From TrEMBL:
Originating organism: Diceros bicornis minor (South-central black rhinoceros)
PROSITE patterns from the UniProt entry: AA_TRNA_LIGASE_II (PS50862)
GO cellular component, one term: mitochondrial matrix
Protein name: Aspartate--tRNA ligase, mitochondrial
GO BP: aspartyl-tRNA aminoacylation
Taxonomic lineage of the native organism: Eukaryota, Metazoa, Chordata, Craniata, Vertebrata
Keywords linked to the UniProt accession: Aminoacyl-tRNA synthetase, ATP-binding, Ligase, Membrane, Mitochondrion, Nucleotide-binding, Phosphoprotein, Protein biosynthesis, Transit peptide
Subunit note: Homodimer.
Length: 738
């Protein structure tokens, strides 16, 4: 009998027929593609049925799968005791596993005495194995809220597999627990249904992605090294000491260079579920170690990468969500900034930024006149629907304070009702014709509030973009539905600038993405005259206001890459000599993308933090609260790495005890440091330093100014005159590297 299979070639889907166990044959290269695709599809991994969840183990079924169709069957279940209740005739307990709950009934007759003793004396959350018969619940005792609520298990035998001591919290989703407690006892938190759901959904989506990339489109799953070398630009890297004095590995921020080298090596379709590392402050959507779906292709353009990712997400999207509609809309970086004030706009709701400069060209308001007289000066505004109804006076004042404190800009609230123009004295100087034109241009209704600001284009847009999200939060807190949590709004953002001015020195440039991103073909000549105006072939994928992916077409010409690194970015090309040599060895045109898996799953599940979709995440400060990592290492184990340990208790000459470096054992605020001693003089004791063990790569000072007073002391104590430099760390701490 013929065997159907699906072939997907060059963007089209074909159903072909082959003799059983064989392959239909075409001609030329397509024969090879057909054969390869058929063999790959034969190896596709399918989703296991419920019965297969119990293969190879002692149980016959999972707790959550039993239904009325199983009545009369003899089953064996394994799980945790969720809770227990006593009845005049019987004792009931609820058994839980990853799949759900089921009620177990223990008869009161003497034949069940041993079973009753085991199950009644076992503490809650003990692990048990029970065997019995699936029976119907008595009429009126069904529980429609439980999927297994029509049946129960009449137990015959039971075995206590492991008893449980008293736990720090109950394993119930409705029990409130602090995040610190959840992270400290993560192995218990993982038992919750929400964590089980999140991690299993993550696994299913990753498997579907592998299937789509490897089985349907011929990608090769390749692991790249974790120990690498320092690279220019990008985020801060974790440094790993080696056994060679003065030499270090770093943990890669991404497999960027390796995947480009794979393209040079002819592996023209690469894919990896890659672990990446960045030594940055933790935020709700950041972790020091994270996972990305890393992809690179040869002979591809931006459209090809975008089509691949749209198909990948459509294929791997959970079946219980609304299907993904492709193609995704696209927007340039300039359009995103002008309309939403950000390069990752949440397009689920309106409140777009409107340029109202022309309305006030002839205004008498000095604040607006001054702004419009400057280069790039504009007047911008957003309209808050029914803001007069929902926003209180203190919230308007809070918005204005936010603008002043964080953006150094004035924001004017304007209302249609004259008596509500509080703290906006400029509003009364707005002429009637300007007011009418503003109403027409922004489609303002009676209860709306307009937030107006003036200044340089980018700064004004960034401010209003921030206020747009702040106001959305305030309105939703009042019950207004703006952002539908069930809606997934994808957006491509393209045409980013290739370079940005450095914050510390605006005359110098840094890469907006990374130094390997290719310039836009139309802007090549500007590289040599006005590089700050060059657009890049970089693209970001945004979902509901969060960046979930980013990539670019790469520079594959060694001469152009060397010019960008040396002439424009002022980087040491020796650090990338291996890559430049590879590009000179017949590198094909190539491009790629990386999807942030943690962030994507976080959005799909609706979790409040990516820590809720990672099995063992780090805390906000980058610590593992369960194992107390990072931890100290015995001196004898540090010796091969030429590292000498110190814990510094540094007491500046001040009465303010907050300006004190107090490194406490097992405390979340503790920061550890390593001092790489190569040819250093022996360390001496000093009244200001308590030497013990060392625990990180740096010593942290709570007060930047305090360093000046202790610079000479530290140099004297370490016996090291040169080589100590001060570099900023996140406030309120400062780091100096030795």
């Amino acid at each position: 009998m013929p065997t159907p299979y699906v072939g997907r070639f060059r963007g089209r889907v074909e159903e072909r027929w082959a003799p059983s166990g064989g392959v239909c044959m075409g001609s030329g290269t397509e024969n090879v593609l057909d054969l390869l695709t058929f063999l790959l599809l034969r190896a596709r991994v399918r989703t296991p049925s419920l019965g297969e969840f119990s293969s190879f183990v002692a149980r016959t079924n999972t707790c959550g799968e039993l239904r009325s169709s199983h009545l009369g069957q003899e089953v064996t279940l394994c799980g945790w005791i969720q809770y227990r209740r006593l009845h005049r005739q019987n004792t009931f307990l609820v058994l839980r596993d990853f799949h759900g709950l089921v009620q177990v009934v223990i008869p009161q007759d003497e034949s069940a005495a041993s079973v009753k003793k085991i199950l009644c004396e076992a503490p809650v959350e003990s692990v048990v194995q029970v065997s019995g018969t699936v029976i119907s619940r008595p009429p009126g005792q069904e529980n429609p809220k439980m999927p297994t609520g029509e049946i129960e298990i009449k137990v015959k035998t039971a075995e206590l597999l492991n008893s449980c001591k008293k736990l720090p919290f109950e394993i119930k989703d409705f029990v409130k627990k602090t995040e610190a407690l959840r992270l400290q006892y993560r192995y218990l938190d993982l038992r919750s249904f929400q964590m089980q759901y999140n991690l299993r959904l993550r696994s299913q989506m990753v498997m579907k992605m592998r299937e789509y990339l490897c089985n349907l489109h011929g990608f090769v799953d390749i692991e790249t090294p974790t120990l690498f070398k320092r690279t220019p630009g990008g985020a801060k890297e974790f440094v790993i000491p080696s056994r060679e004095p003065g030499k270090f590995y770093v943990l890669p921020q991404s497999p960027q260079q390796f995947k480009q080298l794979l393209m040079v090596g002819g592996l023209d379709r690469y894919f990896q579920v890659a672990r990446c590392y960045r030594d940055e402050g933790s935020r709700p959507d950041r972790q020091p170690e994270f996972t990305q779906i890393d992809i690179e292709m040869s002979f591809v353009d931006q459209t090809g990468i975008q089509s691949l990712i749209e198909g990948l997400l459509q294929y791997s999207w959970p079946s219980d969500r609304d299907p993904v509609v492709v193609p995704f809309p696209s927007m340039t970086f300039a359009e995103a900034l002008a309309s939403y004030g950000t390069d990752k706009p949440d397009t689920r709701f309106g409140m777009k930024i409107v340029d109202i400069s022309n309305v006030f060209r002839n205004t008498e308001v000095r604040f607006l006149q001054d702004a419009l007289s400057k280069p790039q000066g504009t007047v911008k505004a957003i309209c808050i629907p029914e803001g007069a109804k929902y926003l209180k006076r203190k919230e308007i004042e809070s918005i204005r304070k936010l603008a002043a404190d964080h953006f150094n800009q004035e924001v004017l609230p304007i209302f249609l009702k004259a008596n509500q123009n509080w703290n906006s004295p400029v509003a009364k100087f707005i002429m009637e014709e300007e007011r009418l034109e503003l109403i027409r241009l922004m489609e303002i209704h009676e209860e709306d509030v307009v937030l107006l600001t003036a200044g340089e284009h980018r700064k004004a847009c960034s401010l209003l973009g921030k206020l747009r999200l702040e106001c959305a939060d305030l309105l939703e807190a009042r019950g207004v539905v703006l952002r539908d949590p069930a809606l997934f709004s994808f957006l491509w953002v393209v045409d980013f600038p290739l370079f940005l001015p450095k914050e510390e020195n605006p005359r110098e440039l840094e890469s907006a993405h990374h130094p390997f991103t290719a310039p836009h073909p139309s802007d090549i000549q500007l590289l040599y005259t006005e590089p700050e105006k060059v657009r890049s072939q970089h693209y970001d994928l945004v979902l509901n206001g969060s960046e979930i992916g980013g990539g670019s077409i790469r520079i594959h010409n060694a001469e152009l890459q060397r010019y960008v690194l040396a002439a424009l970015l002022k980087e040491d090309v020796k650090l990338l000599s291996h890559l430049l040599q590879a590009l000179d060895s017949g590198a094909p045109p190539h491009g790629g993308i990386a999807l942030g898996l943690d962030r994507l799953i976080c959005l799909v599940t609706g979790a409040p933090s990516i820590r809720d979709v990672i099995a063992f995440p780090k805390s906000f400060r980058g610590h593992d609260l369960m194992s107390n990592a990072p931890d100290s290492i015995p001196p004898e184990e540090l010796k091969p790495y030429h590292i000498q340990g110190i814990i510094g208790l540094l007491q500046p000459d001040t009465s303010d005890r907050s300006e004190r470096l107090d490194i406490a054992h097992h405390h979340e605020s503790a920061e550890l440091c390593y001092h790489h001693c190569i040819g250093f003089k022996p360390l001496h004791r000093d009244s200001h330093l308590l030497f013990s063990k060392i625990i990180t790569n740096s010593i942290l000072l709570s007060n930047h100014a305090a360093f000046t007073n202790y610079d000479s002391t530290l140099r004297t104590v370490t016996g090291q005159r040169p080589g100590i430099s001060l570099m900023p760390l996140s406030t309120p701490f400062k780091r100096f590297m030795v």
